[in-house]
Predict the 3D structure of the following.
Amino acid sequence: MLPSLSALFQGPLAVFHDRVLLTPQAQGDVVPVQHLFTPRGLDDVLDRYAGAFTTPVYRRPDRRALVSQWSKYFLAQVVYVPVAANLLLDRRLPVAFDTLGVQLDELGLVERLVIPHEGEHVSVPKGDVEARLRPLMEGLLWPVIASMTAHTGIGSKALWSNVGHYYAYLIGLLQDLPAPPPSVDDGARLMGLSCFADGERNPLYRPVRHVENADGQVESLRRVCCIRYKLPGLDYCGNCPLPAACAMRREPA
């Protein structure tokens, strides 16, 4: 555990206490993100991950669905702890494209983030959403998503929807804390910005929507399908927006 983040790993975030390490703490191989998100690096991890879905019928799983499902393990890691550290502790972690490393499991999935130092304290005026969170988007999320889309042909909206799913979930967790700081509300406001001040589209604008189904129950749906159902053995996710998935969830048992 990083000493500067010890206050973070309590309550709902306690499960992430070992997901971020300093470089000297990391045992085993560390893969630089700038190497991982190259054609060769992505081919390596996706070929390893494809083994989990290879069957006599599906010898080559859909590459776009594969990278979408694989990306979730990376994107969840780079959303939960870095964003929580920023909003709760006013701390910006060094998770940029050229500084971040990762450790992978036997399937090529991201297990831990490895950073060179414990980051820095940031002083951000209340309400300045862009100053808090756009550095993470520009410094890491945009380049890795661009790499995945260029290499596999998956639409960037599907990958940003993966980010948005985890981001919205995290904000919900932080808002439920006993006394969340005002910066958590700033984090929530990010999802209400369709564009940034410079006119750039905000890819995390309204990542989920809440709709009432025919039974009067409110469902939280993603804006864009992650296409995981294209992989053998997987079905629609629990908040898939596709009409077929919604109909299946409403069928009587």
